[in-house]
Amino acid sequence: MASWLARRPGKGSTMTEQGRVDLEHMRAVYERERAAMARATSDQRARMVRARASIDRDCHMVGRVGRFRLESDEPTERGGTDTAPTPLQYLLFGVAT
């Protein structure tokens, strides 16, 4: 892994040293899942994640992804109430993780 990915900004230590992310554990879990997928038949390889969302008011949305409840909104200048992250901010967070 690139050293810039492993370092926390301004701290100079890896996240695993701080006890936040156990990369070896995550890697082992992913490898087990990949091996199980390789053994499965093609119809057993499908994975589905459902997301539902509805308009609460104006630009404020509420929804569910799996067991998690999410809210999104837009800044006031775009007609929202600025009470939650925008959908684009959620997307960027997902890409960053």
Uncertain runs are: 1-14
Q: Please report which band the strand proportion falls in: under 5%, 5-15%, 15-25%, 25-35%, 35-45% or over 45%.
A: 15-25%
Q: What count of structural domains?
A: 2
What's the multimeric state? Answer: single chain
What would the average pLDDT be, to the nearest integer?
A: 83
Largest sheet: 3 strands, antiparallel
Count of separate DSSP helical elements:
3
Radius of gyration: 19 Å
- State the end-to-end distance: 14 Å
Shape: elongated
Helical residue percent? Answer: 25-40%
Strand tally is 3
H and E string: HHEEEH
- Give the helix/strand class: alpha+beta
Strand order of the largest sheet: 1-2-3
Task: Itemize the secondary structure elements and their pairings.
Layout: H1 3-6, H2 23-39, E1 51-57, E2 60-65, E3 68-72, H3 87-96
Antiparallel strand pairs: 1-2, 2-3
Q: What can you see in these coordinates?
A:
This protein has 97 residues and is α+β, with helices and mostly antiparallel strands. The chain folds into 2 domains: 13-44; 51-96, no CATH class. It is 32% helix and 19% strand. The protein has 3 helices and 3 strands. The chain has helices at 3-6, 23-39, 87-96, and strands at residues 51-57, 60-65, 68-72. The protein has a 3-stranded antiparallel beta sheet, with no helix packed on it. β2 and β3 (68-72) form a beta hairpin. The longest helix is centred in the first third of the chain and has 17 residues, at 23-39.
